[in-house]
Design a protein that fits this description.
Number of domains: 2
CATH topology of the largest domain: Beta-lactamase
Low-confidence stretches: 14-35, 54-62
Strand content: 15-25%
Number of strands: 16
Radius of gyration: 28 Å
Mean pLDDT: 87
Distance between the termini: 33 Å
Number of helices: 10
Strand order of the largest sheet: 1-14-15-16-12-11
CATH class of the largest domain: Alpha Beta
Helix content: 25-40%
Length: 432
């Protein structure tokens, strides 16, 4: 048996040498790939007529921070309209791309847009079943005496969670907001702590809450980009409650109040989301519209008039829909390539994405996309399901458009001792 080991190793060495790939010559002037990666071109799946956005896009995991990326400035691409407001942002929800933004990270008073976070936490509580829609809520004197816009709840008049939610969303009732905050957290201060914790989870790095309603306070601020992220998370995580934001009017305590979002009446594709106004904040509006399978979210902060925030939001939405396409680049769970695996029971692994990948582009430009795969090299077994194995980079006319982390769609366990020995020798020669 002692004589078998050298013989076995010799066989392994011989097999490995015979199986070595022939060396390839680099093209003159070609850039060398980064250490530890191999760069290769991928075919453009949209070179044929582009596929429209899928009707059933996979949602990101609940409570995950939405990832919004600025759209590249494509040569000859659409020119964004001028907007009469202090700050604004326009986002395509499917791709997560910001189509245009101005002062998007500037801290500003959010006024009643604050109630987007309030409703996010209320919907969380409903999903967790710590409260329910039919639950009767005691109205404290603190809630009853809250100033500003009101639902007109009263301490001795029964009111349900469902009624209070309508009062917050449709009537922007500060009193309803306080009542819900007290129900969920005991006090408004404790609820504000929850708001700030949730803001951190959602990646709202430019946001800090000091109250539940958005009344003026130096420590109460947000940004257009953060409000867009929060709105995307709200629509994505609670689709069953989002239709509440399209309700045009609500009657409580014999008082009918209209939703202040004018676009609900003038544009049938608009189905939300929230208005806000204080003297310091100006007129603010988060508007969302769905046309076909695309949804855009426009955030306008600091407009000079009520009519102005509506018209400027409409301008942004129309421009976004008319100037861009959002197309499905890759489907969920379908391999886009196979990668070589060393020292594994299989010689390669399928690689792709667990969620569909979309890109937003100037209209008609999808066939001109260039795609590049940067894969990890060498990829050594064991390879785990969903293990990162590279990145797909997307560009148009030399400008980066998006990049998507590539993952393994299969598992590859370790090879036998002999198989690992063979690949060890082959790697040694290949990488010299």
């Amino acid at each position: 048996m002692m004589f078998m080991r050298p013989f076995t190793l010799s066989c392994a060495l011989a097999l490995a040498i015979c199986a070595l790939p022939l060396p390839t010559l680099a093209q003159p002037g070609a850039p060398a790939p980064a250490a530890g990666t191999t760069t290769s071109a991928l075919p453009n799946p949209l070179a044929a007529p582009p596929k429209p956005a899928a009707a059933t896009a996979e949602a990101a995991p609940t409570a995950a921070a939405p990832v919004l990326t600025p759209l590249a400035q494509i040569p000859g691409g659409p020119v964004a309209p001028s907007v009469d407001a202090a700050a604004w942002t326009l986002v395509d929800m499917l791709s997560g791309q910001v189509l245009t933004s101005s002062n998007g990270d500037e801290r500003r008073e959010p006024a009643s847009l604050t109630k987007l976070m309030t409703t996010y936490l209320v919907f969380q509580a409903l999903k967790a079943k710590t409260i329910d829609l039919g639950q009767v809520v005691p109205v404290s004197e603190n809630a009853w005496r809250t100033g500003g816009s009101r639902m007109f709840i009263e301490p001795r008049k029964p009111v349900t969670v469902d009624e209070l939610i309508h009062g917050v969303i449709v009537q922007s009732g500060n009193d309803a907001t306080v009542a819900l905050a007290e129900l969920i957290a005991g006090t408004t201060d404790a609820f504000v702590e929850r708001m700030n914790r949730e803001a951190a989870k959602l990646g709202l790095t430019g946001t800090h809450y000091a109250d539940v309603n958005g009344l003026p306070n130096p420590q109460h601020y947000s940004t257009a980009n953060d409000i867009a992220k929060l709105t995307v998370a709200l629509i994505r995580d609670f689709p069953e409650y989002y239709p509440l934001f399209a309700i045009k009017e609500y009657r409580y305590n014999n008082i009918t109040q209209s939703n202040r979002n004018r676009l609900l009446w003038s544009d049938p594709t608009v189905d939300g989301v929230k208005t806000g106004h204080t003297e310091a904040a100006g007129y603010c509006l988060v508007a969302s519209a769905k046309r076909g399978e695309r949804r855009l979210v426009a955030v306008v902060l600091g407009a000079s008039t009520d009519a102005g925030r509506a018209s400027e939001s409409q301008k942004l939405l129309n421009w976004g829909f008319q100037s861009f396409d959002t197309v499905a680049l890759y489907q969920s769970g379908k391999p886009i390539t196979t990668l070589r695996v060393w020292k594994g029971a299989k010689k390669d692994v399928n690689a792709g994405f667990l969620a569909a990948r979309y890109v937003t582009l100037p209209k008609g430009e999808a066939p001109d996309l260039a795609l590049t795969l940067e894969s990890k090299e060498p990829l050594i077994a064991p390879v785990l399901l969903s293990q990162p194995v590279g990145v797909v980079k997307v560009s148009l006319k030399g400008q980066p458009v998006a990049q998507f982390p590539l993952i393994a769609l299969d598992e590859v366990p370790l090879a036998s001792v002999f198989g690992r020995a063979v690949d060890t020798v082959r790697l040694w020669f290949t990488r010299r």
